[in-house]
Write a structure and sequence with these properties.
Length: 150
């Protein structure tokens, strides 16, 4: 009887430990990995969140970004309306391979709808915005693979 109680208590402890680990992993939120670097991300997967993007954000931690998810792959065009942060815009195809990068895109404030646009060089289904200079810092190049953990 005492042996069964010990085994039950041990199993309960193991399950509790595994459960806490799973909770801790979920608490960290979604992230991506690119060229050995990990970035915590916000995901913009619907039209309102994609339209808002990083508008009105004055800062973003170095290891953070925003991932835009689209239903299909096509040439994507981004602009920086009401975005005070200068950014790198990385365009990925349907297989999460880097298509092109717009580096050090400047902020565009107080210009109304007169902000320049920044297109991809090919069809893209995913777009990752990171702080300006990050693409150079980590050395990304076309064909690099993005791994998404949601």
């Amino acid at each position: 009887m005492q042996n069964r109680l010990f085994r039950s208590t041990a199993m309960l402890g193991i399950c509790a430990t595994l459960g806490l680990s799973a909770c801790a992993a979920r608490a960290s939120g979604p992230y991506v990995e690119l060229d050995g670097h990990r970035f915590q991300i916000e995901i913009a997967a619907d039209e309102p969140s994609r339209e808002r993007g990083l508008m009105f954000r004055e800062n973003m931690p170095a290891d953070h970004g925003m991932l835009f998810v689209f239903d299909d792959a096509q040439v994507r065009t981004f602009w920086m309306k009401n975005t005070p942060l200068p950014l790198d815009i990385l365009y990925f195809d349907q297989n999460y391979k880097l298509v092109s990068v717009q580096q050090r895109v400047p902020s565009c404030l107080n210009s109304g709808n007169n902000c320049p646009v920044y297109p991809s060089d090919g069809a893209a289904q995913y777009v990752l915005e990171l702080n300006a200079g990050t693409a150079d810092k980590i050395g990304v190049k076309p064909g690099d693979a993005l791994t998404v953990h949601r």
